[in-house]
Structure formats: C-alpha cells, structure tokens
CoA transferase subunit A (Streptomyces pseudovenezuelae), 251 residues
Amino acid sequence: MDKVVATAAGAVADVPEGASLAVGGFGLSGVPNVLIQALYAQGTGSLSVVSNNCGAMESGLAVLLAAGRIARVTGSYIGANKEFARQYLAGELEVEMIPQGTLAERLRAGGAGIPAFFTPAGVGTQVADGGLPWRYDGQGGVALASPPKEVREFDGTEYVLEHGIRTDFALVRAAKGDRHGNLVFNKSTRNFNPLAAMAGKVTIAEVEELVEPGEIDPDAVHLPGIFVQRVLALTPEQATDKRIEQRTVSS
C-alpha cells in the first residue's frame, strides 16, 4: 500500500515513447512541474497530451512542447502560448480543441468507467458537425479535420455524443497526500487535477506535503488513493517554487 517513490526520474521511468498523458493544472496553478521536468530529462517524445492547456511562461507542458516532444494535444485553451499556436498553424502539432466543461466531463467519465455521454455543449457548431482543424498543412490549408459526431434529441433538445478519455499515464500535483495515494488539492488546483488523475491508467502524483495514512480526515480527501499508483514527495524548495502568470499590484 505504500505508493511513495524515491525520485521523480524513477516515477516516470516507464513512460514510453508515444504514450498518452492526462496532465493536471489550471493555468500555472497545480501543474506537476517536477514530474514534467523529469520526463523532459528522460527524453521521451511523440507524446499525446490531454490537459486544459499546454503550459505557459516556459513552464509546465511548455517545456516538452518547445522541445518537440508532444505530437498531439487534446485541450480547451491555448492562451498566451505563442509556441503552441506556431506549431499548430505550422502543421507540426495535432490539436483537438474541446469546450472546457466537456473536457472535464470526458476525463471524469473515462475515470468512472463511462464510455460516452450526451451533452448540449457544441450542438449546432463544428464541435458536433465536424470540420474543426486538427492539423494544418503548414500552408494555410487543413490537413486533418474533426469528424462529425452523433447528435440525438432528448425531450425536445439536441445533444452531442462525447466519449470518455482514458490515458496511459496521468501526472498531477496535490497540496497534500499520504502513502496510500489519498490526495487533497488547494483551491483552483482542484479544477483539473482530480479529473486527470481519474483518467490515467497509471497515475503519478507529486505532493507538496506527504503525511502518514490516517492523518487526512476521510471527509477532507478530494481524490481517493484507488486512483493513484505512485506518490512523489516534493522537497520544500520544489513545493514553494510557484510562479505568477499575471502579477497585479496596487498603486
């Protein structure tokens, strides 16, 4: 039951070339930077990543993206990541853009063993009708477009069929975790980390504070250890190394 691993390198050592990854984080909040850096150092590439965004400010997944290690991104937000936009428009990167709530539910559904579900989000748009550019040809044309999805009517309202997401691995970051893998997230870090953790067949969690089993009140657990296979305890320096994306100060 002790799921603690000694090093970040050891935690990601079996992530192979071409693996699919669900990665937690919301902006710069709750991003598993230590595990991502270990994956970068390992040299693994051709990755298919599922995440809200693909990193920013040369941190998070932006490290792997800039190194050309990511082949496909399933996400809901490009934001200010200029390298992401460049690779996408140049035809170097395949990108499946999904409404943010749909992405969250697809991850949760995959983790809960639900193969597919119907949602009204995207009905009447290219999300449902198909034709969204997944890959450009580098010359302004579309090399690969999204296919149409099944649309069905329930009680007079149309809904589009979306499939649950399962990935080979998941990388997440928690504020607190115990040796059994029970995790607690802090504020907005809870947005996508629990969902990414549920979707991974092998989930690796870096935790800012490692405690012994029983020290977390069961009612305070945000993600039960059944979804987590490995726990990496961060050093105090790693735990406090957090960046601010938009710094705002009073005059």
Q: What stands out?
A: The helical segments are 8-11, 33-42, 62-66, 82-89, 100-112, 126-129, 193-199, 236-240. The first helix runs from residue 8 to 11.
